[in-house]
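User: I'm putting together a small comparison set for a docking exercise, and I want a reference complex before I start. The sequence is below, and the ligand is L-homoserine. Could you produce the 3D structure with the ligand included, as structure tokens?
Assistant: Of course. I'll restate your input first, then give the structure tokens for the complex.
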Amino acid sequence: MKIAIMGYGTIGSGVAAVVERNAESIAKRVGEPVEVKYVLDLREFPGDPIQEKVIHDVDILVNDPEVSIVVETMGGVEPACTFVKKALAAGKSVTTSNKALVAKKGTELLDLAKENHVSFLFEASVGGGIPIIRPLNQCLTADEIVEITGILNGTTNYMLTKMDKEGMTFDAVLKEAQEKGYAEKDPTADIEGFDACRKIAILSSLAYGSQVDFEDIYTEGITKITDTDFKYARKMGTSIKLFGTSRRDGDKFHAMVAPVMIDASHPLYAVNDVFNGIMVEGNMVDKLMFYGRGAGSLPTASAVVADVVEMAKNPGKTLVQSWSTKKLPLADKGTWERKFFVRVAGGAEKKAQVEAAFGPVTYIEIEGLSEFAFVTPVMTEAAYEEKAAKVEGVLSMIRMDV
Ligand code: HSE
């Protein structure tokens, strides 16, 4: 079984390593040895065991009938999309780790795979090495999915964990995450929540069977979270995590990416550092938890190669992994109900205003600060916004799931 890898970066090189290191057990599972025939990249890799396999022209692998499976680990929408389309049209199954590609072009590529009697799989595009796509597709088919809530971005989870446990400021922890190679030089996609947004869009499309456009999902990153928020959180016995959530509420569907304050009773409370955690709630099975490394060369490659094995075991078949092209309309974020944690500049004189707007609330005060915080009762986000507008000096708000 000959495969080709497109993009020899962190994940692509991990795929080559997994195929080589676990060659024997993979061959047993597939029924024949799996071998990397080509590595497509713009660069050369002198001294690397794959140096003889490097090609620079995608048509070489597309036109080679010996290659039946293609791994796309280039990242970004283009040229990855054009290359994947060429491979599918040539009758090759494709697996990708590229969430930008799946979130933007997933529906089209799934259809193209079906037309060509091949498969398009993307286990590694969400949660790195965590098996989550296959469980949603194959194991939870008896359930209606009620909710998916995930810590889907390792970089921001590392940053929030450091702010929580070590009291670090946002700027200091971002610098450290960049030095450690977790955060990119341009960390926008991680810290603004765009990466988590694409991942929850993919999971939601699979879970609810209709296309969820990532552009429709309200997305807030962690850039407004400060060390002061964590001082309050510590006093309240809570923590703050960046959640990608989608929820079915009767016939309404909500989806959002935002920092959320949770306490120790939440299943995702103990998901720290660069780890990812995904909670899935089905109407029969109840709550399930998936936990593991959401990034990194070998963990992510493990998920990619698992797709390769699955496709190699099912030649000529389209492995069903699909959602309808019908767009799933998302409910207005104003209709989502929850409690809110709110910080207000000033002192006791402001509390009358707070209570006039919100009714009785729970206050949290930290000595030495010229501000205070309070927790609202459960209300819709629209009601919160209307009431908060009546209070002068609102500094910030964090949604709560406690
Ligand atoms: N930047 C991503 C993260 C990589 O930090 O989780 C994995 O998608």
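The two ends are 50 Å apart (CA to CA). The pocket of L-homoserine is lined by residues 128, 153-155, 190, 195, 294-295 (CB under 6 Å).
User: Thanks, that's exactly what I needed.
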